[in-house]
Design brief:
six-stranded mixed β-sheet; alpha/beta; globular; 19 strands
Length: 491
């Protein structure tokens, strides 16, 4: 091979019906390129084979004239909404399994269901790329079954495209460094073939060192910038076609929230301009106020306060009235200590439960909507089993929403807890990790599956640990239980 390009080599194939043919890189360049891409994907994704994209058979993420993004979808028979995932592949798969969307091997089993993931796949964890690949695999499998996977951009996707890595973990840098190594190997393989266009260097224009960046993490930072900057290989492939706003049936999905000026600007226009910016198109200019700042669509928290009285219900009502057919807004972004819940007469549904190990480490919950009316939460969290059952038994109004306290969760002293014997309820204090806990003078071993750790996510103090009382049933719940729960207004 030395001194000879791959394009100069030939292979002869002969059978009884066809004459000998020569296979070269000139005759089958796309086959070679596809093989290399599959090899790189398999190596980076943790062993996934990504099926061909039925909606883009040429698999060209850099199409200079991409078709318009679809913002509005008809109401499916079954709609599932999943909150922030933050680099935790195990919890991501748990949430999808809880909703019956995948089997034990990770294959799509959701049939014609539509699932919307509201963004924030990136940051706080070390399996961000693996989640992106996994969701892309499911997207392609779902289409074949009449289903749909809708992925969205959150504020952490926007931050990473901007090169803001404040919430990146060491494991996250390492994962992108591994990607860069395999991606460059793939480019080197492609460059041996004279029949293929020379691959772009993902590091073009990037310095080898950065001010104030430690030398031991420089390679990871550089790889992350290369992958996620506008027109980067990962951003253009996985994030450019994410929606920033979606309307599915009667539900409006957005990571943070929508204000009247966002609707006036145009939901389709927001999606197109964000896509063009991420893709690195010349016309890709997005007004900063749309995707950056406290009143942007990915940062807004005006409808997400855990205290119902602090939510701006009048603005929410105005926004929904201006979107044809919209009855509710579903958002992530702000962790709900009480689990998935609704405020403003269930016009605002908040679904970020802090499931990622890097940001809450709670048990997953997902929202399910059947048709246009039946909303319920799917959970494996025994904390809520007892609460939901008691609320139904008391004949309180059913719907979506927890009993949101007027003054928030009641903290307890760390390390102190009480056992209520015979009542089927235990009260535990938060502990930083599974360990023995002293309860009323007795040493008891905490059960990791039932304990929740509130790590620093920009909202908790005291070195990243906050203490809250949790209520746990003594009895194991049935697999994948689902419970409707009452509106805050019915308290």
């Amino acid at each position: 091979m030395a001194g000879v390009g791959v394009a100069d080599t030939t292979a002869s194939t002969t059978d009884h019906h066809h004459p000998t043919t020569s296979i070269t890189c000139q005759t089958l360049p796309h086959l070679l390129s596809s093989f290399v891409d599959t090899f790189v994907d398999f190596s980076v994704s943790g062993g996934l084979f990504i099926p061909p994209n039925p909606l883009n058979p040429n698999n060209n993420p850099n199409n200079p004239n991409p078709p318009p993004l679809q913002t509005t979808y008809p109401s499916p028979n079954r709609l599932v909404a999943i909150g922030d995932l933050h680099g935790d592949l195990h919890k991501s798969r748990h949430a999808l399994t809880l909703a019956g969307l995948i089997d034990a091997s990770g294959r799509w089993t959701g049939g014609a269901a539509t699932v919307v993931q509201v963004g924030d796949v990136l940051d706080r964890g070390g399996e961000e790329l693996k989640i992106l690949y996994f969701l892309e695999k499911l997207r392609r499998e779902a289409v074949k079954c009449g289903g749909r996977v809708v992925t969205m951009n959150g504020n952490h996707e926007i931050m990473n495209i901007d090169g803001d890595f404040r919430y990146v973990t060491q494991a996250g840098l390492d994962e992108f460094k591994v990607w860069a190594d395999w991606y460059c190997i793939g480019n080197s393989m492609k460059s041996l073939c004279n029949g293929l266009e020379k691959p772009k260097d993902p590091f073009r224009g990037l310095p080898s060192v950065f001010p104030n960046v430690k030398s031991e993490i420089t390679d990871g930072v550089r790889a992350r910038i290369a992958a996620l900057r506008p027109e980067g290989p990962i951003s253009s492939r996985f994030l450019a076609n994410n929606l920033t706003v979606a309307v599915v049936g009667e539900s409006v999905f957005v990571h943070g929230g929508l204000l009247p000026n966002h609707v006036t600007y145009g939901l389709d226009r927001i999606n197109e301009e964000v896509r063009n910016w991420i893709s690195g198109m010349k016309q890709g200019v997005v007004p900063s106020g749309l995707i950056r700042g406290r009143n942007s669509v990915v940062w807004l928290r005006r409808f997400s306060d855990e205290l119902a009285k602090n939510c701006d219900c009048s603005t929410l009502e105005h926004v929904l009235r201006t979107i044809p057919g919209a009855k509710r807004m579903i958002m992530g972004h702000t962790i709900q200590e009480s689990g998935i819940n609704g405020v403003c007469k269930n016009r605002a549904i908040r679904i970020d439960v802090g499931m990622s190990k890097g940001c809450g480490d709670r048990l997953p919950e997902v929202l399910e909507i059947i048709g246009n009316s039946d909303l319920r939460v799917l959970t494996s969290n025994p904390l809520y089993l007892n609460r939901y059952q008691s609320s139904v038994e008391s004949n309180q109004k059913e719907g979506i929403g927890l009993l949101i306290p007027e003054h928030g969760p009641r903290p307890v002293e760390e390390g102190i807890a009480t056992v209520i014997t015979g009542a089927g309820v235990r009260w535990f204090a938060m502990v930083p990790e599974p360990s023995n806990v002293v309860i009323d003078g007795m040493v008891m071993t905490s059960e990791p599956a039932y304990d929740f750790y509130l790590h620093s996510c920009g909202m908790f103090a005291d070195e990243g640990i906050a203490s809250f009382a949790i209520r746990i049933s003594n009895h194991f719940p049935p697999p994948n239980p689902s419970f409707p729960f009452p509106t805050p207004e019915s308290k």
